[in-house]
Amino acid sequence: MEPNKGLVSALFLFFLLHATMASPTPKPHIKPRPPPHHPCRHLTFYFHDIILQRQEFQKCHCSHCGFSPWGNRTILAGQSHFGNLVVFDDPITLDNNLHSAPVGRAQGFYIYDRKDIFTAWLGFSFVFNSTQHRGSINFAGADPLMNKTRDISIIGGTGDFFMTRGVATLETDAFEGEVYFRLRVDIKLYECW
Amino acid sequence: MEPNKGLVSALFLFFLLHATMASPTPKPHIKPRPPPHHPCRHLTFYFHDIILQRQEFQKCHCSHCGFSPWGNRTILAGQSHFGNLVVFDDPITLDNNLHSAPVGRAQGFYIYDRKDIFTAWLGFSFVFNSTQHRGSINFAGADPLMNKTRDISIIGGTGDFFMTRGVATLETDAFEGEVYFRLRVDIKLYECW
Amino acid sequence: MEPNKGLVSALFLFFLLHATMASPTPKPHIKPRPPPHHPCRHLTFYFHDIILQRQEFQKCHCSHCGFSPWGNRTILAGQSHFGNLVVFDDPITLDNNLHSAPVGRAQGFYIYDRKDIFTAWLGFSFVFNSTQHRGSINFAGADPLMNKTRDISIIGGTGDFFMTRGVATLETDAFEGEVYFRLRVDIKLYECW
């Protein structure tokens, strides 16, 4: 009887595995990992947004709300800048010092999208072209600026960050009035190729 | 011979599994599930877009097309609002009643992108902060408004919707002139973490 | 002893498989395929951007920068069009001939986001409704226009391109002054459902 036991074990194992591995009916794509998830790559950058004198138009704060575009932007948009589109092209560094050598640039836009408080919708990329990193990471999501930390989605990447996905936690690290603010961007990638 | 049969079965099984599990050559990442796909999570929300009196600038319909920004928007953009950027921050509810308790807010923008018919490009988030859901779902895609239902992409999420992806089907459920419209948003998530 | 060998092999195999298949601790989601990656689908399209006479407002080059929206756009935005938002709805063809039958339309926007050189942030969709393809492919990313080829992310899709992800390589194929340019869009999909 002993030999049969071995065969039975192997067959039992085979069917058990077959049942779990090659189910012929379509199943929801539920990833099996239990939370908390561990990133496959973790990077931190600082993003320096410098708003130069607006009348010099070095930094473009677009203002185009309402039906009277010749009106005063401040009045139209109110205290929360609602509806303002801001285009940026800012240096990113590895530490919180604006004067450190930039490792890339943050390029994209945000739109202030609430009337009562500061909040924005962001679409932007980190574009790297240094010895450390080449390629880009693309971001999108809502940014409730009043929260200490805010999570947005990492929706794709190219080059060294080919096909990546993840979550970025933004934290306003410092600001000086409305002319400078620094964001700490904690990048946690959960899909690495 | 019997004992060998058990061993042979186990070895055969081992090689069979090895062959399917650890293929050494790179292969295209074709997901093996046959269509139709079943969502791992299915949610429906109603999104209420209320366009208040424009001269009050409560709702910002940005108007900034052409080289004469002081001209009349309606003339510049024509009948289809081509080129208009609309920023929104709207309540979302579980049923189609505007007065139901909102479970979150839809924040983002759309740009009317065709001259001849109504169509738009959308980038927005559902931001949840209720007992039912916390976190955000991020959306992007073209919205051919004249079609009864339109599919856009769910490109990521945070919190309860960590790393999710899927497809959202939009349907204009009701509208009153140009001052109110209600979208039914059918969310089908196919990647759940 | 022979029978036990079969049993031992099966048990050993069971534990080995158990260890590799059902690891109880969360692990980073590192996809096992070595580079270079092979796309599961590869498509090439040509995208024809025709900028009609601007004073006719057939093509909307939005201009809304700075605090003086009644000023001259060219002065405000400078030589690089910094801060300009361009909305487009352009035909896409299978070859580089503008007069070929379009297989779909490219709809979305770009924002010029640098002051010193031409660069843009793109959000757009290819919308197909032909015998060959139905559905949409959604794109986002930075487009450093001065580079011969630029990679952006494919962040999702619907219909025939359900849930797809990948990378698109853009190449300016031809241009005539500022009134026409043609982009070659090489689409490499790495997630196919």
UniProtKB/TrEMBL annotation, chains A, B, C:
Record keywords, A-Z: Apoplast, Secreted, Signal
Record has Signal as a keyword: yes
Q: Name one GO biological process term.
A: phenylpropanoid biosynthetic process
Name the domain of life this protein comes from: Eukaryota
Its subcellular locations are: Secreted, Extracellular space, Apoplast
Instruction: Fetch the InterPro entries from UniProt.
Output: Allene_oxi_cyc_Dirigent, Dirigent
Where are the membrane-spanning stretches? Answer: none
Q: GO CC annotations?
A: apoplast
Q: Which residues form the signal peptide?
A: 1-22
Query: Matching PANTHER family, A to Z?
Result: DIRIGENT PROTEIN (PTHR46442)
What does the UniProt function comment say about this protein? Dirigent proteins impart stereoselectivity on the phenoxy radical-coupling reaction, yielding optically active lignans from two molecules of coniferyl alcohol in the biosynthesis of lignans, flavonolignans, and alkaloids and thus plays a central role in plant secondary metabolism.
Which family would the database say this protein is a member of? Belongs to the plant dirigent protein family.
Q: How does it assemble?
A: Homodimer.
The name this protein goes by in its record: Dirigent protein
